[in-house]
Each structure stands twice: as structure tokens, then as C-alpha cells.
């Protein structure tokens, strides 16, 4: 506690008057600065203040006027804001929370939703996708290859199909182990096509319709002195429907899926077919081959040279 005794408190009316004097001086800053900073005495300033109050019909005692002048010099009754600080910033934020509180809460909620979605949904989804891809390459696709190979091995009647299937399976598994999904799927697609080819059954017939020629001949580009002879054929299944089959065109090496193509045969076969059709316009023996279950190629009843064309 301080040893200095506290003086008697000023009456409230005197304090209010002194504050009014200071306020008057603050609004008449030109007067205060001129009088206080000049050579005039304090008495002159008090006299001027008395005149101002008198003109307003207010009588202010001299000691109040003097107290007001002293208060102005000492900056009493003047609010001095605290200097910038972290606490002041927090206080201002708290006071203005009505303006920024709701938007800030909304932004925080949105941020929490994004973070929660990333860690609770997206990351688990990505992990599941990665694990699914790993299992597909490590287990599911190789298992499909094994199953297709086993089916081909059991259903084929020719060793060539087993050799092709084994090569495709080994290549497909190697690609899967390297993470090459497209390559592994391609191997499965080829194994599936090989299996389906073994299961096909159809009769190969010479086309015998007025709007389609039954045979033709061409000069091969690689040897214009030679002549290639073709008979036009189609594959018919047990239900009498035409089949579309992948046929490699020997002239350009491209494979097309077609339902009619030219099969290269010796000249003697070509001439025999031509003579048969010239006889009465009807082919007496139109069937030239039969594809049975378990085999890759048809069994022909006439000599063939193995080549084919899809366009002529």
C-alpha cells in the first residue's frame, strides 16, 4: 500500500465541468495551441474560456477552468488506445466475431469435410483400387489363363492347339507379373479365341448364287507371270446360318472378319468347278470341306493351296 494519503475526491459536477472544458479546448484546438504554445499566460486562456461559456449562458468557476486547462496539458480525459499486440488482436477478433464467426465456421466445416473425405473415403478407395489391381494381375488373370489352357488341352484333338495355348499362357503370365494389364488381357483374348475356334463346327461350301461369282483368278503382284486361282467359299453351321470368320488376306497380310472369301486352289480344281457350273448353272458338289469339333482347320475334300483373299 502507498504511504501517501489519498486526497479528497472531487465532486462529480466539478469533474463533469472540467471534462467539458477539455472537450471545448479539444474542439477549439486552434485556440488551445495558440494560447498554450504562445507567450500568453494561462490567465488569458482562462479569460477566453470564461467568455466562451458566458456567451452560452454558463458560469464556470475559475478553478474549474484552470483544472480543465491543466487536464488538457496532462492529456487527462483523453482515451489513448493500447499499442498493437497479440492480446489486442484477439480482443478485436472476439468483439467482431459476429461478422466473421459464421463464415469462418462454414469454412472450417467445409475444410473438415474435405479432409474427412480424403482420409475416410478417397484414400481407402484408392487403396482398395490398388489392391484390386494387384490381385487381378497376381491371381485372377493368371487363373483365367490356366483355366483356358486346361480347357484347350482337354478339348483339342491336335497338338498344335496345345503348343499355341502354352505359349500364350506363358507370355500372358510374364506380362501380368510385369504389371502389363493390357498385355495380359490380350493373351486371355487370344486363348479365348483359340478355344472358340476348336469348338466351331461348320461346312465349307462354294458360293452358288447368281449374284456372286463362284471363282476367279488373278496375277499376284510379286510374280505377274504366275496366275492364282480361287474359289469363293462360305462357312455354314449346323443350323444353316452363315458364319463370319477371321481370314488372313495373303495379298496384304491383314486379317479381316468376313462371311465370304476366296480360297486359293490348284488350277485343276478351279477348272473343274468352272466346268461343273457351266454344265447346268448348278454346282453338283458344292461342299469342299468340313470343320469338326476339336480341330483348328477344316478337312478339305479337294486339294487347296492354303492361301486366301478377302477382297477381289
From TrEMBL:
Which segments cross the bilayer? 104-122
Q: Which Pfam families match?
A: DUF6384
Kindly state which keywords UniProt assigns to this record, in alphabetical order.
Answer: Membrane, Transmembrane, Transmembrane helix
Going by the entry's taxonomy, the superkingdom of the source organism is recorded as Bacteria
Q: What is this protein called?
A: Uncharacterized protein
Q: Which organism is it from?
A: Devosia geojensis
What is the taxonomic lineage of the source species?
Bacteria, Pseudomonadati, Pseudomonadota, Alphaproteobacteria, Hyphomicrobiales
Amino acid at each position: 500500500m502507498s504511504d501517501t494519503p489519498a486526497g479528497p475526491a472531487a465532486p462529480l459536477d466539478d469533474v463533469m465541468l472540467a471534462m467539458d472544458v477539455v472537450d471545448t479546448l479539444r474542439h477549439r484546438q486552434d485556440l488551445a495551441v495558440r494560447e498554450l504554445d504562445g507567450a500568453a499566460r494561462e490567465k488569458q486562456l482562462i479569460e477566453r474560456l470564461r467568455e466562451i461559456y458566458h456567451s452560452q449562458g454558463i458560469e464556470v468557476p475559475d478553478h474549474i477552468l484552470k483544472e480543465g486547462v491543466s487536464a488538457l496539458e496532462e492529456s487527462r480525459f483523453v482515451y489513448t488506445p493500447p499499442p498493437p499486440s497479440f492480446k489486442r488482436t484477439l480482443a478485436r477478433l472476439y468483439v467482431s466475431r459476429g461478422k466473421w464467426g459464421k463464415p469462418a465456421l462454414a469454412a472450417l466445416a467445409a475444410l473438415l469435410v474435405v479432409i474427412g473425405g480424403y482420409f475416410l473415403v478417397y484414400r481407402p478407395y484408392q487403396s482398395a483400387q490398388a489392391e484390386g489391381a494387384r490381385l487381378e494381375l497376381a491371381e485372377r488373370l493368371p487363373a483365367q489363363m490356366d483355366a483356358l489352357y486346361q480347357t484347350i488341352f482337354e478339348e483339342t484333338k491336335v497338338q498344335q492347339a496345345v503348343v499355341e495355348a502354352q505359349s500364350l499362357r506363358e507370355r500372358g503370365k510374364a506380362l501380368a507379373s510385369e504389371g502389363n494389364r493390357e498385355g495380359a488381357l490380350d493373351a486371355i483374348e487370344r486363348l479365348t479365341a483359340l478355344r472358340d475356334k476348336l469348338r466351331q463346327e461348320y461346312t465349307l461350301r462354294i458360293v452358288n448364287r447368281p449374284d456372286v461369282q463362284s471363282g476367279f483368278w488373278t496375277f499376284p503382284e510379286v510374280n505377274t507371270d504366275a496366275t492364282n486361282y480361287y474359289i469363293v467359299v462360305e462357312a455354314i453351321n449346323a443350323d444353316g446360318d452363315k458364319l463370319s470368320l477371321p481370314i488372313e488376306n495373303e495379298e496384304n497380310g491383314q486379317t479381316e472378319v468376313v462371311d465370304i472369301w476366296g480360297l486359293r486352289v490348284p488350277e485343276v480344281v478351279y477348272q473343274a468347278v468352272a466346268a461343273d457350273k457351266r454344265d447346268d448353272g448348278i454346282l453338283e458338289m458344292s461342299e469342299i470341306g468340313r470343320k469338326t469339333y476339336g480341330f483348328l482347320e477344316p478337312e478339305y475334300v479337294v486339294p487347296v493351296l492354303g492361301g486366301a483373299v478377302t477382297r477381289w
